[in-house]
Design goal:
The chain has 21 helices and 29 strands. It has 806 residues and is of the alpha/beta class. The strands form 7 sheets. It has a 7-stranded parallel sheet. A 6-stranded mixed sheet has the order 12-17-16-15-13-14, with helices on both faces. Strands 19-27-26-21-22 form a 5-stranded mixed sheet, with no helix packed on it. Helix 6 packs across helix 15 and helix 11 crosses helix 12. The longest helix has 18 residues. It is globular.
Amino acid sequence: MTEVRAAEAPAPRPEMDGDVGSVPPSQSQPSTMDGGPERGTVVNALALSALDGLSGADRDRLLGLLASMTIEEKLAQLVGFWEKGDGESVAPLQGEFDEPASLTEFSAHGLGHLTRVYGTRPVNAEERAAWLWEFQRGLVTRTRLGIPAIVHEEILTGLAAWKAATYPTPLAWGAACDPELVERMGAAIGASMRALGIHQGLAPVLDVVRDPRWGRVDECISEDPYVVGTLGTAFVRGLQSQGVHATLKHFVGYSNSRAGRNFAPVHMGPRELADVMLIPFEMAVLDGNARSVMHSYAEIDGVPTASDSTLLTGVLREQWGFDGVVVADYFGVAFLHHLHKVAGDLGDAAVLALTAGVDVELPTGDAYTGPLLAKVREGAIDMALIDRAVLRVLRQKLELGLLDATFDDAPPTGVVLDGPEHREIARRLAEESVVLVANDGTLPLSAGARVAVIGPNADRQGALFGCYSFLNHVLVQHPGVETGFEAPTVVEALRAELGPDRVVAVRGCGVDDEDRSGFAEAVAAATDADVAVLVLGDHAGLFGRGTVGEGCDRDSLELPGVQRELAEAVLATGKPVVLVLLTGRPYAIGWAVQQCAAVLQAFFPGEEGSCAIAGILSGRVNPSGKLPVSLPQSAGAQPYTYLHPNLGRGHEVTNLETTPVAPFGHGLSYTTFEYSNLTVSERVPTDGAIEATVTVTNTGQVAGDEVIHLYGHDPVASITRPVAALLGYHRLHLAPGQSATVRFSVPTTRLAFSDRQYRRIVEPGDIELWVGTSATRLAEARTVLDGPVHPISKDSPRWTTTAVLS
């Protein structure tokens, strides 16, 4: 085993007088009794792997720091601290864990992470920043090593802090298919984080949707791994451009839990794991340089991910070369003991997780503190594993500039968390994400039409946001506290759009109750109007407090409560009914597509979402969203994905219909687009790229955006292949009568799969290509892949590039 001698440790930062709340100095000194290195001792290759690729000076600096650290100081860098508070449940089984000691006592030897400083409860950002600067200054001046903590927050739909901008939920990103806009959103979130002294954001979620019954679908981007990978990577690039770090989650397989139940076991083969679930993570690590990864709560074929060295070390680090930090999902290390029962106590859980490759325990230290220290003193863990994790954390702090930070500067004031740029990004993303599922010509609404807006989500602000928005995640537990930013309801936006005298609003029923007492008023309002707009759907929440969200799974895909009954009562009036769905998952709405005059699907569209919906209803905005997930036939057809092989069709061998109500990629417009002249390379080397061009013409009367999807199918292969697979996409704006030719350059690796020996390869043979949706071929072509079987690696191209030629 390779060994090197640790560099001389730099002198710890001198102690200075601290302010109120600063941390008392540690009395511990470096020692060999814990088995850790002191100055001049050796560091083995296992620990040194954490420094691969680092320059000599930085490498020496970190090794010197490591050599100077006591075991208590090392473990302090591997944990977070969270002041959870009482009665505020924002993490699974949060109440099962005791509150740690006071922050001052807990951080006496330093601290790895501060958990959700701004995002645990509504706090004034400037006041909290002043507190944070003071605390960080205390770590610098009153701990022996003087290393500040990493501050992390939830950022899935924007910085989850009071009064901060809240963007559309990730399913809306998938519907918009606009990587450049998602990258801008990531950069805006990153700028807010940096301004407030936040270093790490817990997003994006790269779980590929497999079962819409699962409550966390509203956190996901799509059922297609390429859409997830491209948009997730765009988010990472934008966020990290601001000098902060993204965290990919939940690595890996979490979304394939049995029967769509949160925390349920995952049963999938290694091929599905490699060819579907791992693809987005690979893209974000290799092409986005994501600096942190969070393990999932899942167990795959009996092995909890938090203890799976094959995934956390073998795939992530040895195959892909990831050199960032792996953090635990909240309480995930302790769950190895409490839930998975693969560890006899918290100390055993810590050993399992560290061995697998979990570097930091979040949200606070339950296993990596006293229980792990006991294992060290028993000699039950190789100190190199602890040193490896510590070096990874120190490397991250070096990248973030924390090893030189003093926090002597003034804390920030006047930080704009929801300014014009945030609103413009939120508006554009909302407008691009709304999907027109069906329309008989009723939309856009006729000028002067009298509109009855009916439904539990019509005049409810929370209906616009997902479960990880600050409003539904935290603020809902603080009744009486104002939202803190402008977010009109659908009723308010429609009154502003159409005029207050043209809009009547009736609730009709609740989101998820059995109260039908409002039906009569709803029917009367619809009868008196020219058109009824039904605004139905979900209420996002946590752990049973909502109809969708973490811990809010469903055994039915009918709309919650008596919402369908309300819709049928309004439909019975004979008036045209426009159904607007504000949801975090796709529902089984075949009945609505058949009976309603129009159907709009909006996946929690954020603070500007109601204005986007109002604009689409009036015709001011032309809808352009495409379904990022199939609209299901029924709960009994789940799990379902458009990426199914031929047997997934069902055919005549089963009496259960699996064909979705609307397929992946479906979405209508107020104009029409014609596809022509699809041309592709006739023959392509198996290690080459398919060049395809197609002409798109706006044949309608209004300008509009079209998202062009290019699909492929391998009709004969050594492994059963999907009947359709998205190879690339491009968003294009066309004026009436305008045409454009779009070129796709598709690396053959987009058609790769794991062979019978689980090697990822590209096989020679015929390939069918088309533009349209996963189920509709608007223009078709064929090509042939020539040459030997081509093995692919992490250095192989993964992205389809597109360009507009004319």
